[in-house]
Design a protein that fits this description.
Elements (H helix, E strand, L loop, with lengths): L9 E12 L2 E7 L2 E3 L3 E5 L6 H8 L7 E6 L2 E3 L3 H4 L3 E4 L11 H11 L8 H11 L15 H12 L6 E5 L7 H16 L3 E6 L2 H7 L2 E6 L2 E7 H5 L4 E6 L3 H10 L5 E3 L7 E6 L11 H10 L6 E5 L3 H9 L8
The structure holds adenosine-5'-triphosphate.
Pfam families: ABC_tran
Protein name: ATP-binding cassette domain-containing protein
GO molecular function: ATP binding; ATP hydrolysis activity
Length: about 325
């Protein structure tokens, strides 16, 4: 594979990253760009190719084609230099059930040739503290709840300082309290400067935790950017109810909009028109200028609203499905 020329401000970059399983294309030529310092949500329904992508990014499975750069280094050729800088939780590590949480972490740390043995005990204690498992450090893992095992997995990824954390569905199977704890942990890690790449099939979770997101649908990357960018992917509508629908349409047309009208029996008609933006934040036609032009033309306004489709509606439109579905 020809290396990607790494962009310095990107923690992860892929070009044309593809994975085939026989006839099936699980990941189809994705170009990811994960800025350093971001909390990057990798969002998509079950089976859309998130885990397979993460496994390729970490060198756990070979890509069929495409290029990858992680922390400015080509992958998988620089795997041994890159991996010590990356903490990962992918499909939960296999813990020894009859060892305690702390003993499990010490075992994983011993197996890591980059981990200094002198500081092992302190680092294990700190990692357990970080994920709120100090009280259960001596408890055998078979007595851990799913949420505790998940947090132990994150503690394992935190045994050493990391520039990048990759977490595959870290809140899967957690109760609401556990979910909140993982979310706040991710935020505090990000505040310390760690880039966090986190996959999820839950839009609400990504909205609460992430600064950026990419949306996968059936192996394809259908959108990517800051959450603010993604919120403005769809159509914003002005909608008003008026007995003077024809006059309202005339005013909106003169302002460069393309209005349409819906008649409702026994009520005033609705007039609506898509609004355009010159920047992500800015509508070309401000609501107040629309209202004053309508009022100046004698249009009686009985209701007026600017409707932004929710992020959920936009993502459903992008992926053709919801996010809670299990396939
Ligand atoms: N080892 C494999 N052999 C054959 N097909 C596979 C293999 N691993 C994944 N797939 C298929 O590739 C597609 C993408 O799976 P992947 O696990 O990457 O999706 P995902 O978005 O992570 O979903 P989930 O959240 O359910 O893990 C699925 O159709 C899956 O069945």
């Amino acid at each position: 594979m020809t290396p990607v020329t790494p962009a310095l401000d990107l923690a992860i970059e892929s070009r044309g990253l593809t994975k085939r399983f026989g006839e099936q294309i699980a990941v189809n030529a994705i170009d990811l760009a994960v800025p350093r310092g971001s909390v990057f949500g990798f969002l998509g329904p079950n089976g859309s190719g998130k885990t397979t992508s993460i496994r390729m990014l970490l060198g756990l499975t070979q890509a069929t084609s495409g290029q990858i750069s992680v922390l400015g280094q080509d992958m998988p050729s620089r795997l041994h230099e890159v991996l010590p800088r990356v903490g990962a939780l992918v499909e939960g590590p296999a813990f020894y059930p009859f060892l305690s949480g702390a003993a499990n972490l010490r075992r994983f740390d011993t197996a890591d040739r980059h981990a200094p043995s002198r500081t092992r005990r302190v680092r294990v204690d700190e990692a357990l503290h970080r994920v709120g498992l100090t009280h259960a450090a001596g408890k055998k893992v078979h007595a851990y709840s799913l949420g505790m095992k998940q947090r132990l997995g994150i503690a394992n990824a935190l045994l050493q300082p990391r520039e990048l954390l990759m977490l595959d569905e870290p809140t899967n199977g957690l109760d609401p309290q556990g979910t909140r704890e993982v979310r706040s942990l991710v935020r505090s890690l990000a505040a310390e400067g760690t880039t966090v790449f986190v996959s999820s099939h839950l839009l609400a979770e990504v909205e609460q935790m992430c600064t950026h997101a990419a949306v996968m649908s059936a192996g394809t990357l259908v959108a990517q950017g800051t959450l603010a960018d993604l919120r403005h992917v769809g159509e914003t509508l002005v909608r008003l109810r008026t007995p003077d629908a024809a006059a309202a349409q005339g005013v909106l047309s003169r302002l460069g909009l393309v209005p349409r009208r819906t008649d409702v029996p026994d009520e005033d008609p609705w007039v609506m028109a898509p609004l355009e933006r010159d920047t992500v934040e800015n509508l070309i036609n401000e609501p107040e200028s629309l209202v004053s032009a309508l009022v100046a033309a004698g249009v009686r306004i009985r209701a007026f609203s600017i409707e932004e489709p929710s992020l959920e509606e936009r993502f459903v439109a992008l992926t053709g499905e919801g996010f809670d579905v299990v396939q």
